[in-house]
Amino acid sequence: MNQISIAAAGFSIIASILLFFQNRTETKTAKTLARTLLCVLIIIQFIQAMYVGGYLLLDSTVSFFYLLSLGLVGPVFYLYSQHVIQTDRGWTIWESWHFLPVIALSLSGVLFPDYFTMVYSLMFFLGGVYMTRLAWSLYLLRERRTLFKMEFLFTAGFLAWSIAVVLMGILSSQVMEILLSAQTIMLSLLIAAAIHIQLNYPHLLSSLEEIASRQYQTSTLLNVDCEAMKKQLDELMTVNEIYQDADLSLSSCAEMLSLKPHQLSELINTQLGMSFSSYLRQQRIKASEVLLKTEPEVSVLAVGLSVGFSSQSAFYSAFKDIHAIAPGQYRRQILTK
Questions:
Q1: Distance CA 187, CA 129 (A)
Q2: CB hemisphere CA count around 333 (13 angstroms)
Q3: Burial 181-211 (b: 16+ CB within 10 A, else e)
Q4: Quick one: pLDDT at residue 165?
Q5: Which end of the chain is more exposed for a tag (fewer CB within 10 A), N or C?
Q6: What does the alpha-carbon distance between residue 43 and residue 73 come to, in Å, rounded to a whole number?
Q7: Phi, psi of 245, rounded to the nearest 5 degrees
Q8: How confident is the prediction for the chain on average, in pLDDT?
């Protein structure tokens, strides 16, 4: 099991580094929190792999940084999610209080080494609290609860693991090696799942941002010329072809129109009868239909990437959602007519 956990840690560290340097479309605060979370995960996996491999001892300094990194996962991920959900929200000094319990617990684990396993368990309990709060935030987005079934499953899995760690930490102080090996493997699986979601569901983050922004009580378009905005949006898509940008998001598109994200979301929802992510996918598919017909020598993958899809799987999934057939099959049917 130790060798498996070391290999898993190596994979997750490399994957996290690649994700760190990836171009992100969130707000500045959300980007900072996302990269902070990735740094924390790298530190956790490195320490765990070195310890499991017998290259590192959990002395006072290492224990402090390990507990601190472990404890930061919950609050940093929660704050990142909140800044994704609330795109107009800026960072406030009061949000820093989320880190105080983590620092206090980390110091306690160093000052009272006999209670290290207990403190380790409490870090998971704290993470479970934050995951519960995040699950509740998603649940409040009543309009599209079914979209986040996957997030609820991850939350349930994390909570189950947290409860198991807390119970083991309370009932036994001789389980650290087993816990660290298992924790390394689980964290690697989580990072692999995150990469899978990003490759196959690239619109998920923008959907979450959009759904949250549409929780308005009254219209946000009272002082907006909707017809002019619709025309300008159409020009951006058909003339400027901004859909070709794989990183295009609700926020970045709204900025081009001098609108707030929730205003653009409401405009597309009320005027066009669809969500921004659906509208963007529709524009990309329309462009791909033309290329599949007029440029038969270009590969299907190249067509998908040229219209803004980030991967072949994302292109195939979106195309089949609209046409119920794969783009290659669509091309063959068009060319044989």
A1: 18
A2: 8
A3: bbbbbebbeebeebeeebeeebbbbbbbbbb
A4: 54
A5: C
A6: 11
A7: -75, 110
A8: 78
Q: Which amino acid, residue 34? A: A
What is the rounded CA–CA span in Å between residue 313 and residue 135?
28
HEC-encoded secondary structure of 132-194: HHHHHHHHCCHHHHHHHHHHHHHHHHHHHHHHHHHHHHHHCCCCHHHHHHHHHHHHHHHHHHH
96-111 pLDDT, tens digit each: 999 999 999 999 988 9
Q: Which two three-digit tokens encode residue 16?
A: 């996290």
pLDDT, tens digit, 9 for 90 and up, residues 35-74: 998 899 899 889 888 888 888 887 888 999 989 998 898 8
Phi, psi for 172 (deg, rounded to 5): -150, 145
How many residues appear in the chain?
A: 337
**Distance separating the N- and C-terminal Cα atoms of the chain:** 58
Q: How far is CA 99 from CA 12, 72, 79, 172, 196, in A?
A: 25, 7, 11, 28, 30
**With contact defined as beta carbons under 8 Å apart, do 191 and 41 qualify?**
yes
Chain-centre distance of CA 109, in angstroms? Answer: 31
Instruction: For residue 217, report the phi and psi dihedrals to the nearest 5 degrees.
Output: -90, -40
